[in-house]
Amino acid sequence: MNIEIKNGRIIDPQHGTDRVTSLFIADGRVAGLGEAPAGFVAESRIDATGCVVCPGLIDLSARLNSIEAELAAAVAGGVTSVVVPPDADPPLDEPELADRLVHRGAEIGKARVLPLGALTLGLKGERLAELAGLKKAGCVAFSQAMLPVVDTEALLRAMEYAATFGFAVWLQPQDHWLARNGIAHEGEVASRLGLAGIPVAAETIAIATIVQLVRDTGCRVHLTRLSSAAGTAQVAQAQAEGLPVTCDVGVHHLLLSEHDIGFFNPHARFVPPLRSQRDRQALSEAVADGLAAICSDHTPLGADDKLLPFGEARPGATGLEVLLPLTLKWAAAAGVDLIRALARITTAPAAILGLPEAHLIPGAVADICIFDPAAEWQLSADSLRSRGKNSPWLGHVLTGKVRATLVGGRVVFAG
Predict the structure, then answer these.
(1) One of 12, 175, 248, 297 is an active-site residue; which one?
(2) Residue 346: pLDDT above 90?
(3) How many angstroms separate the CA atoms of 200 and 283, rounded?
């Protein structure tokens, strides 16, 4: 279908575009910007007056406990591509499982599904999974999700193998031994509440080990969900050395700190834990400077998983539908302009994944988000399409509302 999106503020972070004009779509791709291409006849028009028109959001971590509901939540949040960690049930350690997930996502026809294959069989950190087969089945990289490879030699061999074939490895940097008994950041709040702490050293020791293995193997590594000032400094140093290391930060860690645990609020339990205000500020600066991308770390959970004491509640929060408004909230607080903020959830994730999408010049795949940057709405369990109603932002008024989402030139959400 030929579609004209008119009167919108077109923002393309990759090419620095920021102007009010029309965008023309034909055959699932951007056909023109500003002026209609020769012979173009619009079959449908979308009036985007007062709205921003940008590339579709790319989320670097979204668990799909119910694939239909979560992909519907994704497009309602303007997310057109989701990276799915391998810690499903069963783990994504066989090509058939990955192939089935990709095809099921295509059948649903909402957001694109980009699975991470398991680095090791059963995510046990021992024997290498069938990486070549998983890659052929559609896996974009390989990961242990939140599970460690305790045996450093096993991690070295896995990275050597991945480097040989040009595969990327995604790792959550958290030392197993330092973090295994902790449930909160090791600091004043954990001490006051009597909670077992996870020190920043759990992150920095893991990063130091991974970076050294990158030096030795040349493997491309993406570090997921950094949580500390010291961790961002290590990644900055690795990049200054020219090492192929990238990273992301969960959007909740940009806005919340250990103090938001309050009186044992289970919605504020995350892995890695919310850390100090100084760490939160350093994460904000790292994202603002382009060191890190932003992800939602979408973890939909049942009500019973959070109606427990803090130490027993499952960690995580729903994030697909709030990735955009929370990014806007962070940008407003950090003094980051809109084009740079949107880059952290569009072009930066695309670059990490090596995807050609996430721009709006003619020829680009028409994955597009249209949102009203001034619209206010209250987050409630009823407003969430995700099966997970777990969020520290329930009851809060958020700013920024998606009005339409297009994937491959098809309108897959209209709100």
Answers:
(1) 297
(2) yes
(3) 13
Q: The dihedral of CA 350, 356, 362, 367: what is its sign?
A: negative
Q: Does pTM top 0.85 for this prediction? A: yes
For tokens 């569009």, name the residue: 346
DSSP 27-81: TTEEEEESSPPTT---SEEEE-TT-EEEEPEEES-B--SSHHHHHHHHHHTTEEE
* DSSP calls for 331-396: HHHHT--HHHHHHTTTHHHHHHHT-S-S--STTSB--EEEEEEEEEEE--TTT--SS----TTTT-
pLDDT band at 402; cut points 50, 70, 90: very high
* pLDDT single digits (tens) 113-136: 999 999 999 999 999 999 999 999
Give me 16's structure tokens. Answer: 């620095």
Tell me the C-alpha distance between 387 and 32, whole Å: 38
Inter-residue contact 11 to 17 (CB < 8 Å): yes
Q: Are 358 and 381 in contact (CB under 8 A)?
A: no
245, 251, 255, 261: CA torsion to nearest 10: -100
Tokens standing for 109?
Answer: 């026809």
- Active site includes 297? yes
Q: How far apart are CA 192 and CA 214, in angstroms?
A: 39
Q: How many other CB atoms sit within 10 Å of the CB of residue 240?
A: 8
* Contact criterion met (CB below 8 Å) for 83 and 116: yes
- For residues 337 and 331, is the Cβ–Cβ distance under 8 A? yes
